[in-house]
């Protein structure tokens, strides 16, 4: 039996989950669920690679650059208050199959900065392809980082396609909306407007319905995939905390 002092073990994960749920009792439900993923094409990484090397070949370099970017984002969130004043937060860092780290943040805002209506969601979360003429750099970042990259029904073999008949488990493409609405699940249905802007991503024509919700300021600053979701319902509490503290991926192998 692994004791709770073993970091990443079942008892450690359960203890952290219960500690985090105590924050909900004291400060209320989470307001923002944010995921930041390492960009292997950050200039700080590319300039250190030798000929023929890729980012996964140097996990120490990737981890150091990601840590520096993460500290910059924490400074924006907790000192410069780009979403408002944060009353409590938890976050964990995980590593993908290629060795690229990503962080999950849960932010509980102070009472005066809580997201209480749909207008507050629109000020923090965006789900559209920017106009390439007016905002060329933002347009390029969104197309590169914030489009649902597995393309749902456009590629039936995609890992996100599950069940019979197969459907995208992330529910892409989303339903077009002219305004943000409260959905039945734990997240609102954002403004996925049909503004006529389409992009070609790997020979697939995608529109606003394929955009992953993001915050323009954070995306411009950090140049990576940063998914920002508003936790609109109290029913999201258990899911997001369980998701954050689910532990690393595991696989059982039996050999005869």
Would you give an account of this structure?
This protein is α+β, with helices and mostly antiparallel strands. It has two domains: 1-126 and 213-248; 129-212, no CATH class. It is 29% helix and 16% strand. It contains seven helices and eight strands, in the order αβααββααββββαβα. The protein has helices at 10-27, 43-46, 59-78, 118-124, 136-145, 216-222, 236-244; strands spanning 32-37, 86-95, 101-109, 161-162, 167-168, 199-201, 204-206, 226-230. The protein has a four-stranded antiparallel beta sheet, with helices on both faces. Strand 4 and strand 5 form a beta hairpin. It is globular.
SSE layout:
Blueprint: H1 10-27, E1 32-37, H2 43-46, H3 59-78, E2 86-95, E3 101-109, H4 118-124, H5 136-145, E4 161-162, E5 167-168, E6 199-201, E7 204-206, H6 216-222, E8 226-230, H7 236-244
Antiparallel strand pairs: 1-3, 1-8, 2-3, 4-5, 6-7
